[in-house]
Each structure stands twice: as structure tokens, then as C-alpha cells.
Amino acid sequence: MRHKIVDTKCPKSVEGADTRSHKLLLSIVVCIIALMMSPVVRGQATGSFSGNITDKAGSAIPGASIIATSQGTGQQRDTKADASGHYLLPLLPVGIYTVHVDASGFQSAESKDLRLQVDEARELDFSLVPATVVTTVAVSGEAVAVESANPSLGQVITSQEVSQLPLNGRNFVQLATLTAGATQETTGTSFFTSAASSEVAARGPFSLSVGGSRPNSTDWLLDGVDNNELTAGGIGVYSSIDDIQEFKVLTYTYSAEYGTRAGPAVLVTT
């Protein structure tokens, strides 16, 4: 009697389908893990701290550790000084900061209550003292900051000014006129703009002119993102004063990164 041998292996087509299913499932799991580990990124107007770490004789201290801590959120950013003692902490959100410096063989140094404003490149140097005992030198208070790293001209309107200065209709553009040379365009209800086809009427009171520039040449940015209404040249999304942390009006000689339009640039941070 002959016995029939039955092949119990799955067909190749079934095996291929199982392999593809496993690969697809593995790809989905990897993507989910990558998304969970990725930091939240969004457009944001930022500033920076930079400077030199030296000893009392003026010699550079390479390898010093610098930590900037936001006093409002507790978030930290750290870096180390290079071979020439120079450091840079870029892409910092606006706020109040404490900058702490540590170097082997030297006393720690710290500067508190440092206000970093929109698009501000703030220079902050530290001169460290040799460590004989473990001590910390803390400097509190806000000194008058002279920004020598950024040639742009403009003015920051702080959150205190936004929340406390009187406004007609809660229109924050009125506060932009505190900047030298800035004026608000004629409102859409004036005699000169009564026509429905008027571009000025379409922009309404949300327009700004600096040094005689055309109001539709003003560049509006919201948290670093383009916020221009392209038809009439006004603001695309109008921000409530309750949403604004601070904003800056850049009038002249600003960086090419804000060269979208020929007029001033208004950087609004929520």
C-alpha cells in the first residue's frame, strides 16, 4: 500500500502576504514611536544670548558651561564656550531668563531677571574669579541693554503696555504708533474711503505706515509665520490684545529674513 504524503506548507502567496503584513505593521509602529519622540515645533519669534567667558585678566575660559533658564516656564537651554571662550544660545522664546555659568577652577556666576525680547540678540559677558572656596556670584536686576549685535532699528511693545495702555476698540495696532515715525492709516469709515472698492476701507484700521511707507507694504508676522492679507495688504489674522505677549515694530536696517515687503515689519508673539 502506498501512502500519500501531504505537503503542509502554506502556499508562497500566503507566505508573501504575511511577510508584507508584518513589514507594514512594523513601519506603522516605527512611525508612531518617531512622532511621540519628536519635539513640538511651531513658528515663534525668538531671541538669543551670546558673549564671552573670561577670567579677571581677560583670558578666555574655554569649555565653560552656560545654562539659560526661563523664569516663567523653567525650560532650560545649555551650551559650552568654544576655544576662544565665546558662547551662543540661539532660538530662545521671549521671556525673563537666568543665565548661569560654571567652569572648572572658577567660582560660578549667575545673572538673573534678564528680559529677552522679540528678535533680540543680547550680548552677555561673564568674568569669572578663581575658586578658593565654593561660592556663587549672583547678579540681580535689569541693566539697560545696548544691543550691539543687531543693527536693526525698531521698538518692542511689552505685554505690560499691551494690557495697561488705553485703547479705542482693543486694536493693538494703535500701540505700534508709539514707535518713532509710525502712524496708523486713515480708518475705513473716513470720508476718503467710503467707496466699497477702496483698499483702505478693506484694510480698515489695521494698517501701519512708517516714515511715509505705503501701508500695504507693511509685513505682518504672527509667531514667526506670515500673516499678510494679500488682497488689500492688511493683516491676515487679527490678534486680540489678550493673546499678545509682546510685539516689535522693525522700522529700518532690519535683517534680510524680514525682507518680504518694502515697508516695516511687525513681529507679534502670542
User: In sequence order, what are the helices and strands, one letter per element?
Assistant: HEEEEEEEEEEHHEHEEEEEEE
Helical fraction equals 10-25%
Strands, count: 18
The rounded Rg comes to: 28 Å
Structure class: alpha+beta
Average predicted local confidence, pLDDT: 78
Alpha plus pi helix count: 4
How much strand? 25-35%
Low-confidence segments, given as residue ranges, are 38-43
Net shape: globular
Outline the biggest β-sheet.
5 strands, mixed
Total discrete domains: 2
Determine the oligomeric state from the structure: single chain
N-to-C span: 88 Å
What would CATH call the homologous superfamily of the largest domain? Answer: TonB-dependent receptor, plug domain
Q: At the third CATH level, what is the topology name of the largest domain?
A: Ferric Hydroxamate Uptake Protein, Chain A, domain 1
In brief:
This protein is an alpha+beta fold and 270 residues long.
